[in-house]
Amino acid sequence: MLLTFKQIITKYVLGESLLSKFMRFLFSGGLAAVANICTLYVLVDFWEIKLFTAVNMAFLFGVIVNFSLQKFFTFQEKREGIYRQFALFALGAAVNIVINNEGVYYLTQVLNIWYIIGQALMLVFLAGLNFLFYIMVVFRNKIYLNDD
H/E/C letters for each residue in 78-121? Predict the structure, then answer.
């Protein structure tokens, strides 16, 4: 039986595994964010790649790092289904990249925030959205009950 949104939140977000799962999520996301920002810095300041090309390249690298850590560390997925999960993860990342680009543009070009700070702010914002997306969509097999 598929759980309702309220049951998902109660069992997987407010349940006893919340702290450990959320801490692993933050740790994994933090490592992916560091990979993203370091890549962005190198691409812009050393290789002199245009900002929004570099933002996209760094973001894609961060997605690969993030998926690997979320699958195997945060959600401890060892089973088959990596292609389906990566496809869903990549779809989420495609939506994220649009939101990320618009957000970085607004923060840097309209609010005149340094691009590194702008990217970091967007990564924090997207992390909150992604946690629920991963639980409810990408790694959703863990929210099915077999014991009615």
Answer: CCCCHHHHHHHHHHHHHHHHHHHHHHHHHHHHHCCCCHHHHHHH
Q: Buried (b) or exposed (e) across 81-107, using 16+ Cβ within 10 A?
A: eeeebbebbeebbeebbeebeebbeeb
Tell me the two tokens of residue 114: 């340094």
**What values do phi and psi take at 114, rounded to 5?**
-55, 140
Question: Rounded distance, CA 83 to CA 60, Å?
Answer: 17
- What's the pLDDT at 16? 47
Give the structural domain span for 123.
5-143
In a domain, 89, yes or no: yes
Is residue 81 situated within a structural domain?
yes
pLDDT of residue 147: 38
Domain assignment present for residue 148? The answer is: no
The pLDDT score that the predictor gives to residue 132 is 80
The residue ranges of the chain whose pLDDT is under 70 are 1-19, 79, 141-148
Q: Is residue 139 part of a domain?
A: yes
User: How many structural domains is the chain composed of?
Assistant: 1
Other C-beta atoms within 10 Å of 4: how many? 9
pLDDT score recorded for residue 27: 92
pTM of the model: 0.67
